[in-house]
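WP5 quarterly update. Target: Ig-like domain-containing protein. Source organism: Astatotilapia calliptera. Length: 511 aa.
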Amino acid sequence: NIFLNLRLSLPLFYSSPAGFTEGVGVLPDDRLNAAVGGTMIFTTTMSPTEKPFSSVNWSFNVSTPIIIFIINAENIIGPEYEGRITFFPSTASLELRSLTLDDTGEYGVNAVHDGTLLNGRTTLVIYEKVSSVLVNSSSTDLVEFNGSVSLSCSASGSSLSFLWLNGSSEVTASDRVQLTDGGSNLTIINVTRFDQGPFRCRVSNPVSTVTSDPVNLSISYGPENINLISSPPQGYFAVGSDISLTCSVGSRPPAQFKWFLNGDQLPDTGSELRLMNVNMSNSGNYSCQASNNKTLRSQTSEPSAITVLEEISGSSVKPSTNLPVEGTSVSLTCEAFGSVFKRNWMKDGSELTLTDNMTLSDNNRVLTFNTVNRKDNGEYFCQISNPISSDGDKYIMTINYGPENVQIKGPNEINIKGTLKLTCSAESTPTARFTWFFNGTVKLTNSVEYIKEEVELSDSGNYTCQAWNNITERTSSSVVHGLTVTGTCIEYDSLVVHTLLCAPVSPPSPF
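Structure tokens (predicted):
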């Protein structure tokens, strides 16, 4: 065998014969990786120089020659490598093509340059590329907290390693997550909604990486976090309003809904309940119930109170009597149409402060004065309200009283033929009516004043004023005013004037 004989006759492998100097390693120390069918270039660390290599010898696993190069001679190539290699004389590098698994092993080179023997070794590992990555799931339809799933990853290739991804995050082992069979099997116990994926299996070896198509799990959960919302949000509504109730809940698949009023099921379904043109019969506690036909679970909301009210109108304040008399009992009654929630009383523009003679009853509907007095005069205002409206009415109360403190003003002495004017006054509401007496005889009625022109001596005497109130039907005690008429008497007799001295006449004692 020419190749073998030549190899044995040349000191070109891993020993340093006499007369040569061994150089440093010229191949990388790290292991080289390549794929079946691929190409590997063993690049040396030597740079081209003006003086070429004297000889270069490449071998596989020490005993199998690849190529022998001798300057000015024909290259000798091992039969397994015919048509698969390219040799680069300037750097002593080697290209190996059409790689197979049998090409895995140690590669060595010896090169003589300018009297120096240079050698190196490296290891090449050939891998089958990863392919046909497929994920199978034991189930894709699961219930949260009530099921487990196993995902298995299969692939073709050599020296495979497995990595699982949930979305973009790496899946790692935990109390719920198990990785077995070198990581090719993924088991999740008591799945949650966050285990829905997408799951991918990434398979790799030193020469390739392939990721599977995504697998999604359908994790049914809920219903949970149920919430009932009213629109508008207030709990009180006027008759004729439109109300919308919306039931929201977390659920997969979407929940089914039932509606209840005061515990009784309504015919409505769906997540929204619309109440149009409501009346007072629509008042009550509304609740919704959500159910999931996959998880077989249900949840009921807290009740939402809806109160439909009539607006307040036609307010009035009516007294028990239109003519209240001091010392008697009087009640003011506050009424209105509609749904009355609250009544507030005011007096003369300020909040009413109850005094000892006042009481409020029947939810502030009736204001009672046990015995009214003139201090209770004023404007009383009753405001009636509910959460959606208010109205009010006023009543001006005037206390009738008297007469009392009757007084007569006028002269106690007057000249004869003078004009007499007496005025009578009394404290009274309404204004009192007066009757005048002279010496016990009624002289004048319904007049504040008693007037007489050209009084005579006979007008001397006691004048009495008596006051009367037609509402209270009370009469005052009489007040006596004494009058004395004085002066000169003149007597006319035909053409003769007789002047007489008239003596004053004193009024009789009223006692």
